[in-house]
Design brief:
The complex is a heterodimer of chains A (283) and B (284). By secondary structure, chain A is mostly helical. Chain A contains 13 helices and no strands. The mean pLDDT of chain A is 88. The chains are: A mainly alpha (283), B mainly alpha (284). At the A-B interface, helix 1, helix 3, helix 4, helix 5 and helix 7 of A face helix 2, helix 4, helix 5, helix 6 and helix 7 of B.
């Protein structure tokens, strides 16, 4: 039998088997086992019980609230992301690097601190607490507070996806369009947007997943009123703390399915449109 | 109109070099959005503890319970970052260099902690590691308790931070030139020597960057931890939870004081990350 020699850049078989086994075992135990447990617990009493648990009014209310919060926060952050990427990549101005750092700031702030800052501004003892109460405006323990906290934690997603992408693409095409007499809006809609659409979708996808799943920041500002200010993740906590494990895992499974769908779409985008996503994702 | 644009040109002289419209609109909206939603609320956090005065601030954060929670959050975050970096390098290596069926799936699954809501991860980990859970029951036979102890905090942090280490190292690994490894082999190095003395040193900046990001995320993490930690004051109570406890007692200033400490820590991490990145850029 002819011995196959290893290339000098190949690991010996024992090392490949060893490292491969370590990597797979670590991922299986740390990441896949919790996921499997969620679905096992959710469907422990069959699909019928799963549906009954979902149709519970408070659960449906939490789904609705999560969709409302994400439905406001994601489009706003999308517009912000496009505006920020436009001014940062198409023009030179002093303090640009600092601005990019500031945009990334919410990612390095603890979610609980993200909720806390809005309590300090709008809370009963906060900056505007008194005047808000006098005018009967509810921000904390109501939908606006939940939306604000969601905006904060998902703030950088679209911008940090678009900035490297649009920096790569430069301004040549836009300048050509302007030379040919296109208005700003025409240039954006017909030249820039087609160039960035997959990157934009990628950012929106990640932004949306985080918006629907955010727990810490929303938990601080929500007030935990069952069926009124509980988002899906908060409802999971409420059910779990009340020892309603099947109910908690049912809502958890719903969120997990959403996470898996996000991962699948994300992988699809990375695989199909690798060239049109930011440089960081090309591997 | 002419006067307006003249003022605009004076304020932003660089604008004249560009034919593209929308600079003032996009920058204006960006700054307005950033300042009103992020910077002003963060300012409220920094200003609030000032009403305590320096000694009051110190008193608020130096109680044994607060110190214990900060030590737990930052200490366990450091341990989790080191563990994740170790396994992250192995996982990235396996994903970049080896070929095997199911690799695409494994690669996609790494991002699960990014997209899985933390509350879901929290109840799943808590149930898994509880004394009667799938993993907890096995560990219990050896007398090891994870859930409702500080080790539960560690497990949740390792879970939540893994993608940072893998995703920072992976692209750097993919771009390593094979020539240096070939040269090392030609010069008589064994494969292990090549990996340890040639490949690993080139990865250090990426590993440290990933470690710093993992640390920052783990230190601030809340959702996935509170279910598994048991939240015993001064034992397994993390700093973010203590912030919420203080808020529920209407101790806004005390909560803000802990928040400021955590914010300061994340600023230091941001600076360290920027430093690391410029160091890495210089090495290239």
């Amino acid at each position: 039998m002819k011995k196959r020699f290893l290339k000098p850049t190949e690991d010996p078989l024992w090392l490949r088997l060893f490292l491969g086994a370590v990597a797979i075992a670590f991922i299986a135990i740390l990441l896949l086992l919790p996921l499997a447990l969620v679905f096992k617990e959710a469907f422990a009493n069959g699909i019928g019980a799963f549906w009954i648990a979902i149709k519970e009014p408070d659960t449906l209310a939490s789904v609705r609230l999560s969709l409302i919060a994400a439905g406001i926060a994601v489009p706003l952050n999308m517009v912000f992301g496009i505006a920020a990427a436009w001014c940062i990549t198409k023009y030179d101005f002093p303090g640009k690097t600092f601005l990019v750092t500031l945009i990334d700031l919410p990612f390095s702030v603890s979610p609980v601190v993200a909720g806390l800052i809005y309590v300090l501004v709008f809370g009963a003892q906060g900056w505007f607490g008194r005047s808000l109460a006098d005018n009967n405006i509810h921000i904390l323990f109501a939908v606006p507070g939940i939306v604000l906290a969601t905006i904060f934690v998902t703030f950088p997603f679209v911008a940090r996806e678009l900035i490297p992408l649009m920096a790569d693409q430069g301004c040549d095409e836009e300048e050509a369009a302007a030379t040919l007499g296109a208005t700003g809006l025409q240039t954006f809609l017909r030249v820039t947007l087609p160039n960035i659409k997959w990157g934009l979708l990628y950012g929106v996808l990640l932004c949306n997943a985080r918006a629907l799943g955010e727990f810490g920041a929303v938990s601080v500002v929500s007030g935990h009123i069952r069926g009124v200010t509980n988002t899906m993740p908060l409802h999971v906590q409420l059910l779990y703390d009340n020892y309603d494990y099947p109910g908690a895992f049912t809502v958890a499974a719903l969120l997990a399915m959403l996470a898996l769908l996000t991962l699948a779409l994300k992988s699809l985008l990375e695989w199909r449109y690798a060239d049109e996503l930011a440089a960081a994702h090309r591997h | 109109m002419k006067i307006m644009s003249a003022i605009g040109l004076k304020l932003f002289p660089l604008r004249s070099r560009h034919v593209l419209p929308g600079f003032r609109l996009s920058l204006g909206f960006t700054l307005f959005y950033l300042i009103s939603l992020v910077l002003i609320p963060l300012l409220a956090l920094v200003i609030r503890p000032m009403e305590l005065g320096p000694s009051g601030f110190w008193a608020a954060i130096s109680t044994p319970r607060v110190l214990a929670s900060l030590r737990l959050s930052f200490g366990m975050a450091l341990a989790a970052a080191v563990i994740d970096s170790f396994f992250g390098v192995i996982i990235a290596w396996v994903l970049v260099r080896y070929r095997f069926p199911g690799k695409g799936f494994l690669d996609a699954v790494i991002d699960l902690p990014f997209s899985l809501p933390t509350a879901v991860a929290g109840i799943a980990l808590s149930t898994l590691y509880a004394p009667n859970g799938w993993i907890g029951s096995v560990l219990a036979e050896y007398g090891i308790r994870v859930a409702y102890t500080p080790y539960g905090v560690l497990v949740a942090m390792v879970f939540i931070s893994l993608p940072f280490t893998v995703r920072t190292v992976q692209p750097v690994m993919a771009e390593l030139g094979l020539e240096v490894e070939e040269a090392a082999a030609t010069l008589g190095a064994t494969r292990l020597q090549t990996l340890a003395r040639v490949v690993l040193p080139m990865l250090w900046p990426a590993v440290l960057t990933g470690m710093a990001m993992a640390f920052a995320r783990a230190a601030g993490e809340y959702g996935s931890i509170i279910f598994i930690a048991g939240n015993i004051p001064a034992v397994s109570e993390i700093a973010p939870l203590l912030i919420i406890t203080k808020l529920e007692q209407y101790d806004y200033a005390g909560a803000a004081a802990i928040g400021v400490v955590m914010l300061a820590a994340s600023f230091v991490m941001l600076l360290a990350l920027n430093g690391l990145q410029s160091w890495a850029a210089k090495r290239r």
